[in-house]
């Protein structure tokens, strides 16, 4: 039995530190760079495995290239179960170029083939997972959310933003961000956005907003409940993957059987620690 299947983007991150975001026509000297394993599914899975959960990872095929080999080594150095990952000599491992500036903002440039191959989780695997966690990013993720719902698995969805999203149609829990909501539903008041997502099928909805208050809406004993928690003030160093760590914190709390206030508090704590850690 697995605690959770993390399904979605698995990629190589090329992180590039700049003195500021480049202006049009400007040349900048890169301060430093590195290549690290990334992708929403991998980063969430790594956190959960570090917390001693039994995690299986699926999503992008890994190519026979530098990025694919780096990811294979990284997964082998964790407690993540990667037996269902596909190594495909004909695939190109997705790469994200991430521009980082001293204000802890990041700009992500994703390099992904238009027909990125991915393998759907088999029915017997879904039947052995307590939770399936999937985001809108990566190939075939809406299909996986649908399969998880058909298998009656508790389904956590990252970055659904509208009630007509295919991901929202299958979610028990939605973890998304204020910036995405504003991009996808400009001009819509935040409370109305949460309510619309919640009413799609009664999912608990959690919205992060950087250093600003996290908002949550859920149903308990037939009554609609809500809360708002403001993260502690910190110096931000590492914004990459903060949402993935937050989502992992939510999954951890669900597996522990906690109530929503404790789950949100825990997810806030681990995501804040991630953002505040020097890189």
What does this structure look like?
- The chain has 279 residues and is an alpha/beta fold.
- The chain has one domain: UDP-N-acetylmuramoyl-L-alanine:D-glutamate ligase (3-Layer(aba) Sandwich), CATH 3.40.1190.20.
- A hairpin with a 2-residue loop joins strand 13 and strand 14.
- The longest helix is centred in the last third of the chain and has 17 residues.
- The chain starts with a strand and ends with a helix.
Task: Report helical residue fraction.
Answer: 25-40%
**Low-confidence segments:** none
Strand proportion: 25-35%
- The first-level CATH class is given as Alpha Beta
Per CATH, the superfamily is: Ribokinase
Write the layout of secondary structure elements.
Blueprint: E1 2-8, E2 11-17, E3 32-38, H1 40-50, E4 55-59, E5 62-63, H2 66-76, E6 87-88, E7 95-100, E8 106-111, H3 123-126, E9 129-135, H4 141-150, E10 154-158, E11 173-177, H5 178-184, H6 190-201, E12 204-209, E13 212-220, E14 223-229, H7 242-256, H8 260-276
Parallel strand pairs: 1-4, 1-9, 2-7, 5-6, 9-10, 10-11, 11-12
Antiparallel strand pairs: 2-3, 7-8, 12-13, 13-14
Helix pairs in contact: 1-7, 7-8
């Amino acid at each position: 039995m697995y605690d959770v299947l993390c399904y979605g983007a698995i990629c190589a991150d090329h992180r590039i530190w700049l003195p500021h975001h480049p202006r049009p026509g400007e040349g900048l000297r890169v301060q430093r760079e590195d290549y690290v394993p990334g992708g929403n599914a991998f980063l969430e899975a790594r956190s959960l495995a570090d917390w001693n959960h039994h995690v299986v990872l699926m999503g992008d095929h890994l190519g026979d290239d530098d990025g694919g080999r780096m990811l294979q080594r990284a997964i082998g150095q964790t407690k993540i179960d990667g037996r269902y990952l596909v190594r495909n000599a004909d695939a190109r491992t997705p790469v994200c170029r991430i521009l980082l500036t001293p204000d802890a903002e990041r700009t992500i440039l994703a390099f992904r083939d238009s027909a990125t191959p991915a393998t759907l989780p088999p029915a017997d695997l879904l039947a052995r997972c307590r939770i399936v966690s999937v985001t809108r990013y990566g190939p075939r993720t809406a299909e996986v959310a649908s399969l998880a719902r058909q298998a009656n698995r508790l389904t956590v969805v990252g970055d659904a933003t509208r009630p007509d999203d295919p991901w929202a149609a299958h979610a028990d829990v939605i973890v998304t961000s204020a910036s995405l909501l504003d991009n996808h539903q400009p001009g819509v008041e935040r409370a109305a956005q949460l309510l619309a997502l919640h009413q799609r099928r009664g999912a608990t909805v959690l919205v992060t907003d950087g250093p600003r208050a996290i908002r949550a809406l859920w149903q308990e004993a037939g009554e609609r409940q809500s809360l708002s928690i403001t993260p502690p003030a910190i110096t931000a160093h590492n914004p990459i993957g903060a949402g993935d760590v937050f989502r992992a914190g939510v999954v951890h709390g669900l597996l522990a059987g906690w109530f929503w206030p404790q789950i949100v508090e825990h997810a806030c704590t681990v995501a804040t620690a991630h953002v505040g850690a020097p890189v």
